[in-house]
Design goal:
- The relative contact order is 0.18.
- The chain folds into two domains: 132 residues, Nucleotidyltransferase, domain 5 (2-Layer Sandwich), CATH 3.30.420; 169 residues, ATPase, nucleotide binding domain (Nucleotidyltransferase, domain 5), CATH 3.30.420.40.
- The longest helix has 27 residues.
- By secondary structure, the protein is of the alpha/beta class.
- The strands form two sheets. It has a five-stranded mixed beta sheet, sandwiched between helices. It has a five-stranded mixed beta sheet with strand order 8-7-6-9-10, sandwiched between helices.
- A hairpin with a 3-residue loop joins strand 2 and strand 3.
């Protein structure tokens, strides 16, 4: 059955555990969502999220093992997201993973949450050839990442203000669509005419691969305010479609421009907003037209899950070293860095 790695993910409001064999075969993937809990607040409340993780973590881990038909002693390593994310939420997963690693005397592998999203693509196609370019687009991140090899990341561009997913949620809330707003706005946009409401695109200075969506969000607010003052009825489907097209245009244009600048032939899509129907369709069409190969995970692997964490951990397992048992949550962890407290490592991880 190969090397069995359990992944644990608790960076925000999903409590997740999974078992993946050799970084390829998903033997189990269990995700317990807190959407219903946070909906009444209009967004994720960190303290509430942490408490729910505490309630659910042991159950989710047990369910992942049962679904895979395994027992704890079958595992070769345990991997966990230790940043970036909500401090309290991360600590729950990190504490559980350290307890398992210590109790089972197996390697502990710390994984960056963004790295996990990128590696969801390797669950789809394990044989991807480097170099690669990945657009990571989620509620907290909008990054363009160049990969020369496993674990080798170069950040080409990132958002200077709101992430794309954050802009989606804020605009959806302004339009009275509730939480989570991104998927609802995507569905509504499918019923509208994107050409009916023209909104700005922020390309920033020439040659920049950075993003900015705060101005677009302000443009939607101003459009609604002006319409209200004039007594005009707003077609919300058209407004949603116009907003979505403005986001997608910039994401697609900058991604393919970066691919050309870096000389890559394969483009990856990752993160929660990678499940957006318009983004997937337009990036696929443009990539095909311009001669790039696009790889993107199914929607279930775009949103937060632990299978992607276990997959990323497999490649770290192969190259080492492993995380010490002093591993702590690092809410501001940067992609490509490893931040461990202390230097204690048990010298047992040889097989």
């Amino acid at each position: 059955m190969g090397r069995l790695i359990m992944g644990i993910e608790t960076s925000c409001d999903e409590t997740a555990a999974a078992v993946v064999a050799d970084g390829v075969a998903i033997l189990s993937s269990v995700v317990s969502s807190q959407v219903d809990v946070h909906r009444k607040f209009g967004g994720v409340v960190p303290e509430v999220a942490s408490r729910k993780h505490l309630e659910l973590i042991n159950q989710v881990i047990a369910a992942a093992l049962a679904e895979a038909g395994l027992v704890f002693n079958d595992l070769h390593a345990v991997a966990v997201t230790y940043g970036p994310g909500l401090a309290g939420a991360l600590l729950v997963g990190v504490s559980a993973a350290k307890a398992l690693a210590y109790g089972l005397n197996i390697p502990l592998i710390g994984v960056n949450h963004i790295e996990g999203h990128i590696y969801a693509n390797f669950l789809v196609e394990p044989g991807l050839s480097f170099p690669l370019l990945c657009l990571v687009v989620s509620g907290g991140h909008t990054d363009l990442v160049y990969m020369a090899g496993h674990g080798c990341y170069q950040l080409l561009g990132r958002t200077r203000d709101d992430a794309a997913g954050e802009a989606y949620d804020k605009v959806a809330r302004i339009m009275g669509m509730g939480y989570p707003g991104g998927p609802a706005l995507d569905r509504l946009a499918g019923e509208g005419d994107a050409g009916s409401v023209l909104l700005p695109r922020a390309y920033l200075e020439e040659g920049s691969f950075d993003f900015s969506f705060s101005g677009l969000k302000s443009a939607v607010i101003n459009f609604l305010r002006r319409s209200g003052q004039a007594g005009e009825t707003v077609n919300k489907a058209d407004l949603a479609a116009g907003f979505q097209q403005a986001v997608v245009d910039v994401l697609v244009d900058k991604t393919l421009a970066a691919a050309g600048a870096m000389g890559v032939s394969t483009v990856l899509l990752a993160g929660g907003v990678a499940a957006n129907s318009r983004l997937r369709a337009e990036l696929a069409a443009r990539a095909e037209k311009e001669g790039y190969r696009l790889v993107c995970p199914p929607a279930s692997l775009c949103t937060d899950n632990a299978a992607m964490i276990a997959c990323a951990a497999y490649y770290k397992y192969l190259r080492g070293p492993f995380a010490p048992l002093t591993l702590n949550a690092v809410p501001d962890l940067k992609l490509g860095e490893e931040r461990y407290e202390g230097d204690f490592r048990r010298k047992i991880f040889t097989g």
